[in-house]
Amino acid sequence: MKPLSASFNKENTPSTFNARLIRSYSLFISLFFLLSVPFAVIYTKEWNIFQNLWLIVTSPSKLVTDYFALGGLGSTLLNVAICGLIANAVIYIFKVNSNAQTLAGYMLIIAHAFYGLNFLNMWMPFVGVILFCVVMKKKTSENIHIAFYATALSPFVSEVLFRYPMGSAVSTNINWVGIIIAIICGIAVGFIVLPLLPGTTAMHREYNLYKAGLSVGLMGIFIYAFMYKTLGIDSPSTLPISNPEYYAMPYAYRGFMNVFYLIFFGITFIAGFLLKKGNIKEYRELLKCTGYGTDFADKFGMPLCFINIAIYGLLFVAYLNLVFLLPNIFPFLPAGVGFTAPTAGAVLGALTFASDGQHPRNVAPIVVGYVGLHVVVIAICLVSGIDIPWTLSTQAYINGLAFATGLCPIAGKYGFKYGVIAGILSATICTVTSSMHGGFVLYNGGFTAGLSALIMIPLLDYYSIKPKREDDI
């Protein structure tokens, strides 16, 4: 009989089991999107799916380009599936030992494949990081998640391929100048973002889970300033989209996306429940974590992370459905949006780090901060007799909140009220940061959260505000 130690080899370690689950789960997500495509086509009767997909791929994609309006529901889901499968292939080809960061990078790719990222413009930033690893002799497999993060600058690629420097005119003919600029941008992203990431992370001291947001945001500011402001070229406008049938729907594809996410999170919950053999009492311990520097996958295992993803995701969808109704309940509020493509992507973006720090308890104060700021704005506007400028279902504030959840470690460590303040701070600046990089950085919410942490953490230090809770151990 073999000793127990001999049978428990490298293939059976918890980290290896987590890696297998992450690879399998990310592949499941890609296939789930792929299998949903025919149902989407039948639902919307947009039969020219491949023609619409070509339109998505060959169009400039600044924030926030609604791929549902541009190409339709089915074509958008197909784009998400293809981008996801490309990421899956990369994970397998480079034999990545998948962890929570790998899953986070994958989630950000499929989240932004709803608006701004497609299977053409994602390659140059991605290849730039891989080339950096080859030249600098770093292990590519250990930096694939950063290559995933680098795709946040993909809109620059679409811009130089199809519109730069023409401004408003769009050409579907790719020219050599555009290809050369795209290659230069991709290489620059690889050789700057990856080295920049440790420094920008140190700046906010990991109180923003969307760590890459600050580094790619700063990189985006430089590229935008040089390509447009420095050279005196007019800043491009958001791509005009003519889709009257889509815009006539008050809640866009609300019914389909609600059912989609209900099934998706339901399967995720069942998978976690079965893998945990029905014993999910440990979830209470996860909810007690501050979220600061805590790898939930490593500490609790991926099965419990599946539970967290499902519960957190369903709660975020419930929040969205509630804020969609507010303009109907309170007629003095301006009209918002519904399940547009950016909204659908925001759901996935909001739970990017659900296996690495985010959970409903430490995210709740950030949400309260957004709601609280809106109440204050309403009160000021009603007293002053001016129009209320936005509501919680305004697109910028939906996506802003989704990524402001990355500030949850502040709520986790310093307590509820400081989490609320972090939410208010992020909500205040979320609509102005995109103008700094021209709308070419998909991680605008992560960039905003990074700036918010840069402001808040030094103030907490200066006024000697002590953390309410210790680091997770």
Tag the structure with descriptive keywords.
473 residues; mainly alpha; 22 helices; 66% helix; globular
Overview of the structural elements:
This protein is mainly alpha-helical and 473 residues long. The protein has a domain of 219 residues. It has 22 helices and no strands. Helix 3 crosses helix 5, helix 6 runs parallel beside helix 8 and helix 18 packs across helix 21. The protein is globular. It starts with a helix and ends in an 11-residue tail after the last helix. The N terminus is likely disordered.
N to C succession of SSEs: HHHHHHHHHHHHHHHHHHHHHH
**Helix proportion:** 55-70%
Query: Could you tell me the number of beta strands?
Result: 0
Percentage of residues in strands: under 5%
Average pLDDT confidence is 90
Rg on CA atoms, Å: 22 Å
State the low-pLDDT regions, or none: 1-10
Strand pairing plus helix content: what structural class?
mainly alpha
Bulk shape: globular
Q: Total number of helical segments?
A: 22
Separation of termini? 37 Å
Question: Main sheet, how many strands, which sense, barrel?
Answer: none
